[in-house]
Amino acid sequence: MKPTRFETAIALIDKANSEDINTYEVAGMSYPKELLYSQRMTRKLLQFEPNASKALQIAARAQHICRWKIGRDEYPMDRVGYLKWRETLKKMHADLTVDILIQVGFDEQFCDRVKAIILKKLIKKNEESQTLEDTICLVFLDYYFEEFAAKHSDEKIIDILKKTWVKMSDKGHEAALGLPFSEKSLALVKQAIS
């Protein structure tokens, strides 16, 4: 059976992300970092929002597409530099994704919708942009938080958790509190949200 446009788009996003030179190890196996991240995004999105639209599923899968191509060190190592880097990345992720969608035959309206979700337009007003943001936060908290927390002071972690919490919806908060945190991490989360 011929794959659908959606399946082809996902396969092309995965193909692009499989070229990541950075790797991430899980249970002794090494994976291209952004390929693993994008698959975790899909898994978490479908746990969090089982009825996610095809547009939202594509946006989640492509949210970090080819992220390694623009290094953090290409921008000043301060808050302004960080924010500029993030904005440049978002635009690149959206443009690369739209190129894939056009290639597989999606119309302009669908492409614009996916682009708006990746760019997180009207985040608190657009349900799909908010769901993407919740999914990003949940993936961080579920898969990357413990490792990240081990490298930073409790003060910095609490500050980051506070900023993460503000970005999330009530539904996102509920899902986050259901994650299997270690005792120490759960204590930090509780401190951050109290």
TrEMBL record:
Name the record gives this protein: DUF4202 domain-containing protein
Organism: Algibacter amylolyticus
Alphabetical list of InterPro entries matching this protein: DUF4202
Domain of life: Bacteria
